[in-house]
Structure formats: C-alpha cells, structure tokens
Write a structure and sequence with these properties.
heterotrimer, A mainly alpha (205), B alpha+beta (322), C mainly alpha (630), A: mainly alpha, B: 322 residues, alpha+beta, five-stranded mixed β-sheet, disordered N terminus
Chain lengths: 205, 322, 630
Amino acid sequence: MSIDAAAVFPHEPLPDRLKGARATGWWGMVWLICTEAMLFASYFASWIFLSETIRAFGEEGGRYPPLGLPSLMTVLLASSSIAAWWGEKGIEKGDQGRLRIGLAIAWLAGAAFLVCQVIEYGHKSLGPDSGAYHSLFYTITTTHGVHLAVGLLMGAVVQVRAWLGHFTRERHLAVQNTVLYLHFVDGVWMVIFLLVYVSPHFWRR
Amino acid sequence: MMALLQAVTVPQPSALDPHGPAAAREATLWWVMLAIATVIFILVLYLLLRPLFRRPVDGDTTPGEAMPPDVQRRWLVWGGAVMPAAVLFVLFLFTLTTLAAVRMPARAGDLTIEVIGHRWWWEVRYPGRGVVTADELHIPVGRPVRIRLSSDDVIHSFWVPQLAGKTDLIPGQGNDTWIQASQAGTYYGKCGEYCGRQHAHMAFVVVAQAPGEFDQWLAREALGAQAAGDSGAVVGQKVFRDRGCAFCHAVRGTPYHGDVGPDLTHIASRRLLAGGSFDNTRGMLAGWIANPDVMKPGTLMPAVEMPADELQALVDYLQTLK
Amino acid sequence: MSTIEAGPGVEERLRTNWEPPETLYFQLASVDHKKIGKRYLITAFLFLLVGGVEALLMRMQLSRPENTLLTPEQYDQLFTMHGVTMIFWYAAPILSGFGNYLVPLFIGSRDMAFPRLNAFSYWTFLLSGIVLYTGALIGMAPDGGWFAYTPLTGPAFSPGLNLDFYAISLLFLTISTTAGAINFIVTIFKMRCPGMSMSRMPLALWSTLTMSFAVVFGMPPLTAALVFLELERRWNFHFFDPLSGSPLLWQHLFWIFGHPWVYIVILPATGLVSMMLPTFCRRPIVGHTYIVLATIATGMAGFGVWVHHMFATGIPVLSTTFFSAASLTVSIPSGIQIFGWLATIWHAKRHVWRTPFYFIVGFIVLFVIGGFSGVMTAAIPADWQETDTYFVVAHIHYVLIGINLFPVMAAFYYWLPKMTGRMLDERLGRWNFWVMFTGMNIAFFPMHVVGMLGMTRRIYTYPAHLGWTWLNQVETVGGFIFAAGVLIFVANYFISRKNGVRAGPNPWQASSLEWSVSSPPPAWNFSVIPAVASREPLWDGTDLLAGGGGDGRVLSHEKKTLGTTVLDAVPDSVLHMPEDTLYPLGLSVALTVLFYGLVFKSVPVFAVGLLATFAAIVGWLWPKPGELPE
C-alpha cells in the first residue's frame, strides 16, 4: 500500500495556530460546556423529580414565583449575549473598538444581572433551609450566578487584554471561548427562567 | 459478641430452597437462567479453547491478511448479536411471566402486617388487632400476607430468602410486598440494605403456623401484660419504671408507653432479642441490659447502670411478660 | 514518492526543545504525557495495593463466624474505602495511565492536546486521593459504602466528618477525571497523524473516546448529587431527607452516573485487548467496524439502565420492566465484542503464547461469567433475591477484575517493555497469570453460592449456624492466593527492570504506531510525524515516512506538533506545545487547600485556597511572550 501524498498533505504551508472550530482550545471549551450543561441538566431533572414526588413543592403558601425581576434579568442576559456576539463579530473584521465596546456592554449587563439576583434574594422571606423547593431554588440560581461570575472574570481578563491590543483578526481564541461560555451561561438562564419561574404558573394546580 | 441464635433452629435461608410461591417462581427463573448460561458458557469455552489446542501450522510470525468481510459478519452478527438477542428475548419473556406470577394476590389484603425498620431491629404491627411485637412475624401457613413496609430512620430492606425477594423500607415512602409460606416452620429473614453500624445484626424470623395456632397466637399477643405476680417481678417492675426503661419501651396493660424501642408486652415469648442478635435466654437478656454496647457495638440501646440485684429483678419481671 | 528524512541536526533540535534536564524542578513541572502516564500507572497501582490490603483485612474478619478481629466501625470504613479506592482511584485512573502514555503514540503525535491540563489532571488525581485518605489517617474514613445512600449518609445519621471526606474528595476527583476526558477527546479528534481517518483509528482510541464522552456526560449527575449532599450536611439544605425531600433522588442521580461509570472502567480495557489480541493471533482483529459500533452502543446504553440498581425500591413495575429490557439489551454489544475476540482467536494465523495472551484468554472467560451473572441480575424477580447479597459481590468482582484488572495485567506485560525498554520475565509472567486466575476464581466464585444461600453484603460478621462458614473460608484463602499473584507481578517488575531482556522498538512485531519508535520513546515521540495508509500501519508494508509534507512533518525548530482535521486527519495546523510549568501543580495544590478548607469548615483556609486557585488560573492562562501579535 502507499500513501497518496497530495490527499494527505496540503501543499501550502499550514497555519500557525487556528481560530474557530479547528482549534484545539475551541474544542476544549465545547466539551467543558457540554459537561457543565449536564450538571445543570441534573439539577433540572432533580427539580422535576422532586416536584413530582413531594406534595408541598413550591413557593410558600402555594404562591406563584414572581416574574417581574426575573424577566428584567432575562432581558439583561439576552442583551449581554447580543453585545458579546457583536463585539466578537467586530474583531473578526479586525475592529478593535467594536470588540472593546461589545465586551464592555456584555460585562456591564452581566454584572447588573448579578446585582438583580442579590436584590431578588433579599426579597425572599424563606432561606434554603426551609425545604426542598427553596434548597433547589437557591442551589440552581446560585450555581448559575457563580458560573456567570466566572464568565465575568474571564470577561474581565479578556477585556484587559483587548485594551492591551492582544487580539487580531486572526488570533482571538480567548475572545471566542469567553463569548461562547457567556452564551452558554445565558442559555442556561433561559431554561432556569422557563422551568423555575414560568412553568409553575402553568403546571401547578 | 457471643453465640447467636444457637437454640432457635432455622433452616439455612437459601433462596434456592424456597418454601413459598414467590420464592419458588424466583428460584425457577434463577435455575433456568443458570442452565442457559451454562450452555452458552460451554459453547464459548469450546470456541475459545478449540483453536488454542490446535497446534500452529508453522512458526511463521508474519501477520496474516484480514479475514474476508463475510466471515467477519458471520461471527459478529450471527454469533455476537443475533444469538444473544434471541436468548435474551426468551429470557425477557420468562422474566415477564415470572413477574406476573409473583404479583401480590388480591387475597393478600385479608391480613396485613406492618413492618417498620429501625436501626437495628424490626417493629412488627398487626393493624386492627392491637398487636405490636418485634423481630418476629407470625403468619398463617398457605395464606398470602401483605407486608406494609416503612422506615423510621434510614433505608432497610425486608428479605426472607425462602419466602420472597427483597423490598426496601424507605423513610417517607410506603412500600408493599407479600409473603406466603407453603409449610409450617421458622424462616430466617434479614435486612438487605446497608443501614449502618449493626446492619449485620438486623435479623428476624418468620414463624409460619397452622391457621388455628396463628389465631391463638394473635389473640394472646393482643392481650395486655399480666400484672406482676411474684415479689421478684414486682420489684423488677419498679426497676423498669425507676431506671427509665419506660422512656423507650412500652408494656401494654401498664402505664409504660415509650415508643422508641421494641414493645416488650410479650417479650418473654419471643425467640430473639435485639434485632435478632441473640436467643432470648435469661443470661442473654441480662447481659444485653447490662452491656448493650458490648453485646452489639453501636446499638442505640443505652446501658443503664444498676446493681446486680436490681438487674436480676428486672430480668425476673421481663421473663413474666409471656 | 519521497521519504522524509530527519535531516541533520533535527534530533539535536528536538532534544533541546523537548527534553528538559533531570532536575527536581523539571520533574514537578513536566507536562510530558509519558511521564504523566507512568505517574498515573504507578499511583493507581499503589491505590490497587492499598485497596487490596483493605480487602484482605475484610476477608480475615469474615474467615470465622462472629469474628472480633475488626470492630463493626472499622469494617464499615474498610468496605467503603475498598470500594471507593478501587472504583474511583484505581480502576479508571489506571486506564487513564495507559491512555496518557499510549494515545499520543497510537496516533503518531508528540503529546496530548492540553499537556498542562494533563499534568493538572494527574496532580489532582493524586491530591484528591490524599484528601480521601486524610480521613482514614485521622480515624474518620467514610463509612457509608461507595454508593453512600441517603439518608444514612445525611447529617442526622452520619454526623462526623467521614462522609465529608467522601463527598469532597470525590468532587475534587471529578475535576481531574473530567479534565482528562476532555483532553482525550480533543487529542483524538485533532491530533491523529495524516492518513489516520476515523475508519483507520485503532480500537483503543474508539474505546477511549467512548469512555471520555461517558465521563463528560455521566460525571455531572454525581457532581450534582455530591453538591446536594454537602449542602444538606453542612448548611441544612433539604434534598434527600424524607421529611422534605426524597431519599430516592440520591439513588437516581448516583446510578445515572454509576452505570456509565462501569463502562468507563471497562471499555478502555476492552479497547486495549482489541489492540493486543491481533499481535498474538498474527492477524487483524475480526469485526473491527462491529466492535467500534458495539463500543459506542455500550457507552450510550449505559445511560439508560440505572434503575436496575433500584429494582427493590418499590418503583412501579412498568418502569422497572423497561429498565430490565434495556439492561438485557446491554449484553448484545458485549456479545459482539466477545465474538470479535473469539473469531480473532479462532482464525488466528498462529497463537503466540506469551503472558499477555494468557491474561487475554483468562479475561474472556471471566468476562463471560461476569456477563452472565449480570444478565441474571437484570431479570427483576431474580434480582429481588440477588440484590445486596454476595451474588452481586461476585458479579462486580468478575466484571471489575475480569474486565479491568486482567486486561490491565496483559497491558502491563505488553506495554511496559515500551515504557522501560526491557521485557518482563516470561516464566514469572505465567506464574503471575495462573496464580491470579486460580485465586480469583477461588475467592469469588463461591460468593455466587453464598449469596444465594442468603448472605447479604456489607455485614461485618455472620452467625455460625447458617452454613456460610466454609464458603467464606474458601473465599479468604482464594483472596490471599490472588494477592500473591499480584505480588508476583510486583516482583517481576523489579527483577525485569534490572535484568530484563532489552525490548527493542517492536518486540511483539505488532502493528500499531507506538512500536515504530524506540523503547522507551524519545521525549518528542516521533522525529517525523508518520503518515498511515491502513489500520495496521506496521503490517501493511508502507513507509510511514512517505507521503510528502517535508519540513511540515519534522517541526523541529520549536516545541510543535501537527494538528489534523477531525474526520479525515488531513493536516490543518501546526500546534505549539507548552513548555514545562509549575502552574498545573500549583493549581492542584491551591485546590487541595480549598477542598481541605471545605472538609474542615475553615473559612480562612478556604479563602486562601480560593485566592490561590484564581491566581494560578490567571497565571496559567496569561499569554506567554511568543503568543502575542508583534
């Protein structure tokens, strides 16, 4: 047997470091996100299991979870994702300004979300030790909040590097991975919003 | 730890020596599977060993060509997939018929026994009959009996190998199972699920009796304790009260209603003590009261300090609780 | 067609770029997959020995009824530590060890995709094991069983630190396992040498890939369960306590993880068998494609069978029936694999009777027995009798020893010569096999019987009159024979390390790429990245160095290797490999501090660990001078 040299090896020199779906770092982030997604899926499955198993699974006194603040938080995260995406598209065209502005808006919207979460916790009368519903509520939302905080830390580092001019049109894997992670965290919130906040309005009683 | 269950003779609790309809069906399923497994195992051994005992054609170690695709397909598809699938399909059907056969019969509802798991003993109640006992179930021979299982603390599992397979006792969740003995006798049962320090000593016996005997037993158990008659027992009853035994233990027919430990109304008629740990003899009983943590390390029964004469009186009293 | 020569000065340049001096710093900072792989192997093997001693202590306790050698507390700690050690710190890591050492060599690469992450995985594996055993050292070893069922393990019934050591060291370990799995996936996706398309991948890569996906998707339910458990134990949350939550939630989460985990610890081992067997039968494996499909099917089906661990919990019959059917179905892909090996042996050109082959034949026998006892537990009514008895103990040991340890032993005899450069002694090897095989069956076969005779698991003693005594004594004797077999291997290793016959590059005349380089391989593995044209590159007569690419396949001027496309392995990039660095060790140590802070409820310790973790991550990720645009 012999090896077809032309098919195996391209003639032009190979790129030094890749971006996008060809880079090892991007693949690493994808699988990290998959395993994180399974963690949240386990939380959600526990939520559904307990809501089916336990009679008194819900807000105190059978009330519905409030929707006002969580809706605002949803809007904040959606705009954070959009801004991050806009900034990333910017650097793909080599536009440093768009990258910096996009990342900054995304970061501020994410930070505002965390502030809202603290406010939301402040409004709740019962703590996580008051029963399975609240235990799971706090665990899910706090785990998400911590993930967002990690995303914001990554965002901060990337931001500093963006201002230092570390990124170019060809090389901005750190931006890609950070933005991908932020999209993931935002996507998880959408599921939380639907499952934890919205669904009780339809499912319970 | 000393001699356990020396006097109470129970047959070996073998799941393959069934004495009840459910266990019998389960054993049949098991033997059939073993037979199928043995046949296939012999087939595999043949396929494995026959080429190994063939002498190599020559000493040539140059690698050979890959086998042609149809040979590969024959082995992998027919041998590896179709053959197991066919066997498993038969097995699955047999599983389903066995499942249907060991479903609880409607008649089992006629007699229900509540079994509540505690670390590490069994509370046994006959609802509606006013009977509470421990570590010992009495059932009439030849009748299905519903067992309603619950737990007071952690997960346990109810198992009488000769009568039926396991069902867990899960706190906060009631599980039902049923047992039926086809012959009179004493059957060994034990906790199947690891439940902490003395999981090893959480046994019980099922006493299957002729229906008449069973009814007599039930009627006698429903009575309260007889008043202490002789003087030693009277002293012992005081000890029972003053040393705090009554905080945990109940003796029906007296003011003692503790509900932490086993009901002692008829303790003297029981075969076993302390979660089936030892035979119910006078010496064991005294030793158990004096040094529970030595007899059964980790037990929740506290040691109560008392002089020897009080202990003897207490044992006297308990032995009157027939 | 031209052959690429490693031109003048290439080896020297590669040596400068890849081979650090032998100083302590470079030992601790090493990111070389071969060093990491060997460390994994040694550490996991030590855990095997520790877990084995724990088992022997239990066997001594059970050799007589009413024995008082061990207290019930010691026994509970021993069986918990034995299970946790063997399942989490031996069975999976030993395969990670082989994977780390071999995967880059199988695929013709110079390292893993993320060498620093690889070093981090190892240190985390080691340090999490030390966190676990800290509990044992201070007398507070976990005692809730490796499955740690709630509510027994909740705050009400297990108030000590015992279960915190369990939960927190396992949480720590999951980081290592997950990072390792991601590393394998990306390495196998992106770094296979030119020509090694998906269809030409050796079977061990498929099993490693499947295992890694099972980790990525199967580990998080365990993480969730452990997080819930710690929140419940420490901060009075409620998930599992019967008053407000559900004890069964733990069992569901644990077994959704737990059953894939069984395949995580056996699939890579079966892959290693599929790599070794053709060598001893002198013919390519029969049914390559079917075995690939069976491997993937097993990995996926493992996610759909968890309820078969819960048949006795009172779950409705309809759903248990579904899971019973699913569990029976799992044996079909196993059947396909077994028939692949049987056919390979049947159609062998000749049999090469060397030690690895003995272990493989033994493995097939044990696999079949363990498989049948598994089928017998998948039939629900039979399982009601078998579950939680010694029948299941026998089953899991046939599976774990048969399908994990026996292939591992074969793999040691087969690949240690690659790692050390010297063959293991053949005569001791055969003793090793026969003693282990005999001891294994004497120790574990009677357990099937004693389980059916009513002996439940996890009991520290049993009464004399139930007739279990003599079977237990036989098992104890078998256990010690088995242990003697393991010791023969240890002796063989040390004897052969000094006096063994030199192996040379390809002592087995095997077909895969790792045998194309010297034993042990140079730090850079391949001076020229090979190109392959079939599944058996060393058997098909092609020149690995043919196929163009020129200097693009030598890459000697910096620490580089080749990146290729996922499906067809067409070169698409040059990958820069990181230098040795202390950050992975630093991050692991920082996390250790953090997790100790959690175990001992110390806020300052936890805070120091958290800050150090953050610092280590930023330092690790901050771009090195060469990585910035000019």
